[in-house]
Amino acid sequence: MCPRKGIEGETSSDHLASDLSPDPENAKVKANKTPQVLACVAAAFGTLSSGAVNGWSAGTLTSLDADPDITMGTAENAWMASIISVGSLAGSVVAGRVMDKLGRRTTLLAMAPLLLLGWLTMALAPNFAVVLTGRAVCGLATAFLFSTGPVYCSEIPEARMRGRLGSVPSLFITFGVVLSYFAGAFFSWRVSCYVCCAPVLMMFLAMLFAPETPYWLLLKGRREDAEKVLRRLRGPEYNFDDEIEEMERKMTSVGKKMEYRELWRPRTRKPFLISLFMMTLQQVSGGNVLMMYTGTIFLSAGVLNHKLATVYTGIVQIIFTVLCVLLVDHFGRRPFIVLSTSVMGASTIMLGVYYLMKDVVGVAWPSWVPLATVLVAVSGYCLGCRTLPWLLSAELFNTTIRSTANTASLFYNRLLNLIVIQVYPFFAEAAGAYTVFFVHGGLCLLCALGSLLLVPETKGKSLEQIQEFFEGQAAKKSAPDDVEKPSPVGEAAGTGRGNRGFQKDV
Q1: pLDDT tens for residues 428-444?
Q2: Helix (H, G, I), strand (E, B), or coil: what is residue 394?
Q3: Phi and psi for 322 in degrees, rounded to 5?
């Protein structure tokens, strides 16, 4: 698959970056940033809880192995790490419809008691089966949190802040993972469950004071409420008339009925395929293997203090995820994705070389080598692979299909996650850990090339501009060879700004 080029030789990604420049008038408007930041942080506590669920196995599998009441083996380790993906698969089937029916805010609030139930079930479990049941309940809740949090944080902020604030949920996933690492390193696995309950309560309390998104309110025909929310988020002096009219115009042009078949219509097909590619990239990179089997990987690699090494891994995750969040609106999405996958691929292959020398050749390298290699791999993963797939999945689609598309992407992501996490211990046992990491590293480098060629740059663009870009591409693709067909949306608006300057794809 290669990028389509116009007559002038530019890729579609370059067109999006050049033709859809931010509106200079909007750039001069001083909106109040604080309410937007607080609302996104409130929602992000949900993904912090999800991160704790995801990272819990990394710091506690060795503790579970030592518990006389819990019988653990290769299969049990695999299920303990991957069962949350089974719960997520079940939840992702309905997550989009639930958030469109109840609203983004209400969906987040409703997940707090469910996730709390999962953690308490695990903490009080008398045997392996009950621990697994609690993990599955937690996985079910994370499907809604993973799906709703990024959508909420893409619909709350103005365009110039959406890159940073849209990445906050992924940043908080990292915080949650690190919280579970610390809990596993310094407490027993049962006590760690109680520690990981804290973000659930924080999310519930914070979301009580957060508003619903203006996009969802408009979707339900509640313009007056949407105006109140925008006034609250942007400030009383901010003129949001153009912003809200643009939202309504786009909803009118695409309709308000949510259908899964919309994902394969010309105007939505390309962003949907890009979203699926990003989810594939995230899972095949091997980052989640390193996240969820951190302790056992360090133990098998001969790292002396695997619990302390796990804590180091968590600290590195925070540093590089913060860097990504702070810089993504300055440098753009695509450069971070390419850099992230390249670093991840090279360092994962290096980890495979270490295991090959240790297990096959019989040459023992110093124990700091696997530690350093994993830390570099994790830093690369957090620079983009962890964060940006969720951001792009939330911002590539129009408002009426956004939750549906996000749900479909989440289902695909969780299915891949289940396969990768479930297969890893058996694959490593049968073919050697070096084979596993060679495969992940090679796939990661291929994804770096694919990202360079295929991923569009959406930095500084409004959700409506991004949507008009893909609609314009779909319109011209169906036009005669010698006619440049304007976007129907552009015609309706009297501008066609999303498609001006585009040439027919060849």
Answers
A1: 989 999 999 999 999 99
A2: helix
A3: -60, -45
